[in-house]
Amino acid sequence: MNTTTFGAIAAAGLAAGGAASCFVGDAEGLLRPPGAKDEDDFRARCIKCGRCLEACPYQAIRMVKGPLGSEAGTPMIDARAQACRLCADFPCIAACPTEALHPVGERSEVRMGCAVIKRDLCIAVQGMRCEVCYRACPFIDSAITIDASVREGDAIHAVFEPLIDLEKCVGCGLCVQRCVVSEPEVAIGIVRDYDEARRRIDEEQAKQVSNPWKG
User: Looking at the whole model, is its pTM more than 0.85?
Assistant: First the structure.
């Protein structure tokens, strides 16, 4: 799948009424409500009726606005502004008249995407105790776990790094909403395509993150 810059997706998010929370390309970068499958299936079925927006009790679902071609008028979630709360009865799915949002049995079966942590921005990786994304996760100790380790070359500071389980993360975005890092950008985002998420997670884990406590 082709990727675009975070800035391009940020522009799409701003057009929808808030800062963007996804950082993977073109329409695939728009975080869709639970029940949406791949973008082609979703676009073929969605009639832009707005019923899922009306049904969402948390007003997490927004309509894409602006000159964005065929995406305009379709529902999306800006996780930084208001993440999906994974309602037990999925009112958004029940309201959809065309099954653009396919029925989902359990909350754990939702596949909106997968969280990816940018390790060079994550303050926990830098050596500060945070755990905000870990505590916010509705599948704590499953989708997000904490890996405690001693930083190489540092006999004083331990690292409590949040790790994402690709098989357990449903992409609700609560970790994105609660992340304490905002500059230069949020330290965690949702990637809709799970193969791309796996590639990015592997890429992030391979990074050698500098130790601000040394020297």
Answer: no
